[in-house]
Amino acid sequence: MKPLKIIFCLALTTSTISCSLVEHSRLQSPARMDNPKAIKEIPFTYEKDLIIVTALANNSKLQGQYIFDTGAFYSKIENSLSNTLELPDIFEKSNGTAQGVTRMITMTKIDSLTFVNHKFYDIAAGKLSYDKSSASRCVGPQGIIGSNLIKLANWKVDYKKRLLTFSSAKLPVDNTLKSTTIPFSTSTLSGIPEINIQLGNIKVEDVIFDVGYNGGLILPMSYLDKLDGNEDLVVFDQSISGIFGTNRDTIKIKRLPVKIGTLETEINVEFSTLNKILLGNDFLEHFLVYLDYDEEEITLQQTEKVEIKPIKTFIPGFINDSLWIVNRTTDKIPIKLGDTLREVNGKKPNEMFNSFCDYIKNINSLYTNDTLRLKTMNGQHLTIKL
């Protein structure tokens, strides 16, 4: 395929586009799926609390691994695979992430994406070059299935069975389970669902319902000032990475009552200086999730008690094979964010992990005890209580 003329445009945010809406509409409008009224199923794996689906792009022989992500405006296809498939360049736009990192990407179109035997056609996608510090490349190396594809159907997410069910028809709901149904909205041309929730005595609007986020509920820091009481914990972080890498953040955690529809629970809520506003899988995995784009409704059916995983207060990261870096810490730990370490538990990175992705997938092996032993660059030995 010959590259088409590139048109330059600018995204003001991840969902608001200043480029001609006509161009984006043209890019998205032919998208469709085969046999739309049938009820179909796609199995998934659940890695690092993310939904990973297998798909074939065009006539590729490679079974690619993609992150299923309602929080992504457009799907993404990894750049080297795009080159192999000779996908065309259509226009360029900026793309921002929840980490506050923005880069230009080139838009293209995938003729077909096949999941098991189910096909979606003419899917717009950004050509993706993962940052080397991106954890996403370790679980979804071929890219992201974004909301521009997801909005073509109605979906059921069964976290226990590791199964996605979809159809253009309305999906039947399990009537043996208690349900809460909430409306959602999307912005122009977007399939990203946004909901309203009640947090303590305040209403929080436009929370992204994001199955591409492996955390729980995270909100802008400005909301914390409206709530009574002190935060339970403060962490300084650069461990959370998106497709374009990491950014420094201060996160405060507070246990609060949360109401979503008729569902009421109490969970640890995170507040971020990066102004994230997301509800992710650490919360949603306790439910059957029905996402109905025709009615613009989400139905949640609770399958187990809602518990958000405790946040790690200290995380060492990779610099290279021989050095660690402090990617998360607190003001109670005598080591600063970004400090370099010689050893963790008496070992260098390459003595514990074979690669960066091995580290990403198996970092929990560092936390088998309630302490970490550190050696600083000046030879000082410290023991960190977790």
TrEMBL record:
Gene3D superfamilies in UniProt: Acid Proteases
InterPro entries, alphabetized: Peptidase_aspartic_dom_sf (IPR021109)
UniProt-recorded name of the protein: Aspartyl protease
Organism whose genome encodes this protein: Aquimarina brevivitae
